Amino acid sequence: MIQPLTFPSLPAEPPRDEEPVGPSVPGRLAAVDIGSNSIHMIVVAPEPQGGYRVLGRERDMVRLGKTGFRGTFSEAAIRDGLEALIKMTTLARFKGAERVVAVATSAVREASNGADFLARVKAQTGIDVQLLTGVEEGHLIYRAVREAVDLGPGRAVIVDVGGGSTEWIATRAGEAEHVLSLALGSLRCAADLTGDPPTAATLDRLRRRIRKELGANVPAETAARLIATSGTAACCADLVDFWSGRGPQTVAGGLREVKLKDLAQVVERLRTLPRAAIADLPPVGGPRSESLLAGAILLQELAARAGADRFQVSDRALREGLVLEALGQPAPAAAQPADLRRRQVLQLAERTEGVWRHGQQTARLALRLFDLTTSVHGLGEREREWLEYAALLHDIGYVIQYRNHHKHAYYLITNASLDAFDRREIEIVAHVARYHRGPTPKAHRHPSLAVLEPWQRRTIRQLAALLRLADALDRTHASRVDELFCAIRKKRVTLEVLSRWDVGLELEAARERGRYFAKVFDCRLRLRQGLETASL
User: Fold this and answer.
1) Exposed, middle or buried by CB within 10 Å (0-12, 13-18, 19+), for 149?
2) Is residue 4 predicted with pLDDT exceeding 60?
3) Using CB atoms within 10 A as the burial measure, which of 28, 40, 137, 499 is most buried?
4) At residue 491, does pLDDT exceed 50?
5) What is the per-residue pLDDT for 511?
């Protein structure tokens, strides 16, 4: 295992005789990853129940590796790197960070003046940058991904395609079996290409070189699940969406799946385009245009070595692993990977303490309704889980404002760090929470719903009908309903509400909300407390 890293606090005096720009807040932390292609920073605040909340992200594609891999950083590259780091440490102070932790990777490892660069970073920012080995880098990436992604009981491979190196982490049952750092990266591979666009001969030579390197160093896997991190993988996923007409994703977090046949189409399109045309593509931009094609080809070969026909893209990477290491948070037990999803939902739900008890009661009632009416809705375990999470989160919009809190809930869920979920799942959970009150789901009135696939819209309507009824049965937020029983005969659903108290307000709200249940499931709904019937 990687040895514990030690990190300094922010310097007592600001660099360059500047005035302090903001007070530090105990516990807040900034993590900086000085990579070969770009410099990343993330600023976080630890949560009392574990985990952390992201306060800000910054990225500057300074491409240190463009000159570092040739032996020496150019003065221009050093200047760009210093400017980016000065800006980031200043922003960290604005956000109240009391510590900045920083690491450097392959470009700084290989440059003959890498130590001089780090000395200048120390002099101008006060930050001691730790130079990681490739294996240490791989362990931190694994730590970040394992925190957020259910790696499953079988074999999985995590690959991080950086500018100068690729980290290959093979896992079994969630535990890392071996970690490799390969001298293959998007910038390094791009240096092998000639022509604009590159000639077919240089592309073929690059593929052969990659295959030779992988064959000599990486054990071949058989149909392993593949998780890819890094900007190259994310940009390829963005291009798949862009060229398929799906446009920008509304969900900020979550896993995205890319099929190898779709990645092959991305490569075929990119290989015919000059760099200026690649730079003009909305998901790409100028700095990445030079290395993207080489990075996409590298991803193809890595997937082939893993025996995978698709990969999932996670936005967790080295900097998130660095945060977890610096916060000293223990790794979750790999034996219970499903808990990752629940933990992420609960961490989000617990931010709204005032309605936490109501969320738990609503979730309990929603699951009971789901189980009692299985013969009516025909949904399965996957949908049951989504309903529970939507119920736990349906009122988190209170943290912004009561007015339109259902819409605020949608925003918070789609922008949360729910990386253990597929993005389509997040869309469903967010929409179900959004439609727990207010107008019912209608694609022609709500643009965010209209862009979803038909099966997603159908699932949202069914789960929203169940959630509305469960929410109504805790109308007073007093958890008065103890138990539910149900009798189903033909198209009549009779729901019996057991309680030690008078639940007249709950029944009144349920009669109102139950109309949508009856419409969605094409049935008649009757509610009663004990032997006293309240019918729609």
Assistant:
1) buried
2) no
3) 137
4) yes
5) 93
Q: Given this model, what pLDDT does residue 247 score?
A: 60
176 φ, ψ to 5°? -70, 125
Pairing of strands 155-161, 310-313: unpaired
Q: Which residues contact 502 (CB under 8 A, 6 or more apart)?
A: none
Say what the pLDDT of residue 174 is.
87
**In CATH terms, are 135-321 and 340-535 the same topology?**
no
pLDDT of residue 22: 61
The gap between the terminal CA atoms of the chain, to the nearest Å, is: 63
Query: In sequence order, which residues have a C-beta less than 8 Å from that of residue 489 and are 6 or more positions away?
Result: none
Query: Residue 56 burial by CB count (10 A; 0-12/13-18/19+): exposed, middle or buried?
Result: middle
Q: Which region among 52-66, 181-195, 484-498 has the lowest average model confidence (pLDDT)?
A: 52-66
Distance CA 313, CA 283 (A): 15
Phi then psi for residue 70, to 5 deg, are: -85, -5
Task: Please say whether the structural domain 340-535 has been given the CATH code 1.10.3210.10.
Answer: yes
Closest to 395 (Cα-Cα) out of 455, 348, 335: 348
Burial category of 213 from C-beta neighbours within 10 Å (exposed 0-12, middle 13-18, buried 19 and up): middle
CATH architecture of 135-321: 2-Layer Sandwich (3.30)
- Domain locations along the chain: 15-132, 135-321, 340-535
User: Would you state the pLDDT for residue 108?
Assistant: 92
Cβ density class 103-131: b for 16+ within 10 Å, e for less:
bbbbbbbbbebbeebbebbbeebbbebbe
Backbone angles phi, psi at 254, to 5 degrees: 90, 165
Kindly give the residue spans of alpha helices, DSSP state H, lying in 245-355.
260-270, 275-279, 286-289, 292-306, 318-327, 339-349
- What is the rounded CA–CA span in Å between residue 2 and residue 5? 8
Crossing angle of the two packed helices 405-414 and 381-393, in degrees rounded to 10:
120
Under 8 Å between Cβ of 433 and 393? yes
**Complete DSSP assignment for 91-148:** HHHHTT-SEEEEEE-HHHHH-TTHHHHHHHHHHHH---EEE--HHHHHHHHHHHHHHH
State how far the alpha carbon of 233 is from the alpha carbons of 230, 298, 307, 453, 503, in Å.
Answer: 6, 10, 17, 24, 53
More reliable by pLDDT, 121 or 350: 121
**What does the mean pLDDT of the chain come to?**
87
Long-range contacts of 284-287 (CB under 8 A, 24+ apart): 284/235, 284/239, 287/38, 287/61, 287/63
Condensed to tens digits (0 to 9), the pLDDT of residues 382-406 reads 999 999 999 999 999 988 888 889 9
